[in-house]
Amino acid sequence: MAPNQFSRRRFIGRTAAGAGLILGGGRILTACGDDEAAAPTTTAAPATTAAPATTAAPAATAAPATTAAPTTTAAPELAEVNFQLSWFDSVQFGGSYIAHQMGYYERFGLDVSLVPGGPGVSPDAAVAADQALVGISAANFTGQSVADGAPFKIVGVAMQKNPFVIASLSDNPINEPKDLEGTKLGMAFNNQLDLELLSELNDVDISKIEVITSDYDPAPLVNGEVDSLLCWLTDLPVAMTVQGIDNTTMLFADFGYAVHSQTLICTEESLANRRDQVLGLLRGDILGWQEYRTDTDAAAQLTVDLFPDAGFDLDAQKLQASEQLKIMFSADTDEHGFLWFTDESVQDNIRTLAALGVDVAADLWDRSLLEEIYADGPVLA
C-alpha cells in the first residue's frame, strides 16, 4: 500500500490520529486488494499441552478396594463451522464477537470461526462453495446471485435500514433529496444507479446534481470541493465526528430506498440438511447482539482488545457501535426479535431491487428459522 493510502478499516480505526489526515486530503480506498492482508480469523484459543506423565511408584500392598467413582459423560463434540463476515474486522460485527467470546455458539453445539471479509471476498461465493455455513451479504448481491442460479436463502436481516447516507457539513446540510439539486455530490462511480433511484423516488432532477467521482474519503467535503458525499452512516460521518467536524446525515432508507443490508444467508441444502446448525448459529448470534445493544461501549472495547494490531481508535469504535443501533434495531425487532423481517419489508425490497435491475421473488427470504427461534417471544434467553 502506498504512503497516505488507507483502507476503510484503517481510516475508521485511526480517526483520532488528527485532522491532518482529512484536511491534507489523504486518500482512503475501499479496495486495497492484496495490499493489505485480512485480519486473523477469530477462533477459540488452542488447548494447552498436557504435562508429561511421571514414572509410577513401586507397587505397595494393595489397599482394600473402594467403590469406583461414577463415570463422567464426555461433553458432545462441537461441530466446526465458518461464519463469513462481509468486511474487515470492526465493531460492525460486535455482536458476533460477543457471541464468540461468551461461548454462545458453543451453547448450541457449534465451534464457530468468524472469517473476516474485505473488498476481495465474496460471502455469497464462500457460502455457495460450502466454505462457510452462513455468510453476511446484502439483498441486492444475493438477489443477483440467485438470478444467476445460486441456491440461496436470506434467513435474517441485521440492518433494518440500509446504511447508505448523504453526508454533508452541518453549516450547509442536505436534509432531504431535493436539497441535492444545484449541489456537488462526491461518490463512487458504481453508486450511480442508487443515486438515480433515490432521485426517481423523490422527484429530484438528477441533471441538476453535479456528480464528482471521488475516493471513499471525507477530504473533498471538508475541503469544500463537494457539498456532500454518498457513504455509509457508520464510517465517514463517524470519522468526521471523532475529529470534531460537525456533519449531517440523510438516510436513503428514510426516503423510499429499501435494500436489506447485513443479511444472513445460507444455501437451500444447508437449510434442509443442516438446519440445526444454522439454527444454532443464529441463536448464538442473536444472544450476542442482544448483549451488544445493552452496552455498545463494551462491544467497542472488546473489538479493540481482540485486534490489538489493527490500530483501532476506541472513541471511533464506540461511536460506530452506538450509531449502528439506529439501523440494526427497530419497532419490528422490538416486537418480533433481532434479525426479523416483515412481509412488507420484503415487498419493499422486491420493488427497490427491480428498479436497480435485480428481479427477485419473495421466496428468496425464509423466516421459518426466526419463527422457530422466537416462538416464545422476541427476547432469546
Helix/strand layout:
Blueprint: E1 5-7, H1 8-13, H2 20-23, E2 27-29, E3 79-84, H3 94-101, H4 104-107, E4 110-115, H5 123-128, E5 134-138, H6 139-147, E6 152-159, E7 164-169, E8 184-187, H7 192-201, E9 210-213, H8 219-222, E10 228-232, H9 236-242, E11 247-251, E12 261-267, H10 268-273, H11 275-294, H12 296-306, H13 314-328, H14 331-336, H15 343-355, H16 368-373
Parallel strand pairs: 1-2, 3-4, 3-5, 8-9, 8-10
Antiparallel strand pairs: 5-12, 6-12, 7-10, 7-11
Helix pairs in contact: 3-11, 3-12, 12-13
How does this model look, in words?
- The protein has 381 residues and is an alpha/beta fold.
- The protein folds into three domains: 1-35, no CATH class; 39-66 and 74-160 and 260-373, D-Maltodextrin-Binding Protein, domain 2; 164-255, D-Maltodextrin-Binding Protein, domain 2 (3-Layer(aba) Sandwich), CATH 3.40.190.
- It contains 16 helices and twelve strands.
- It has helices at 8-13, 20-23, 94-101, 104-107, 123-128, 139-147, 192-201, 219-222, 236-242, 268-273, 275-294, 296-306, 314-328, 331-336, 343-355, 368-373, and strands at 5-7, 27-29, 79-84, 110-115, 134-138, 152-159, 164-169, 184-187, 210-213, 228-232, 247-251, 261-267.
- The strands form three sheets. Strands 4-3-5-12-6 form a five-stranded mixed beta sheet, with helices on both faces. Strands 9-8-10-7-11 form a five-stranded mixed beta sheet.
- Helix 7 links the parallel strand 8 (184-187) and strand 9 (210-213).
- Helix 3 packs across helix 11 (275-294).
- It is globular and about 75 Å long.
- The two termini are 45 Å apart.
- The model is unreliable at 1-66 (pLDDT under 50).
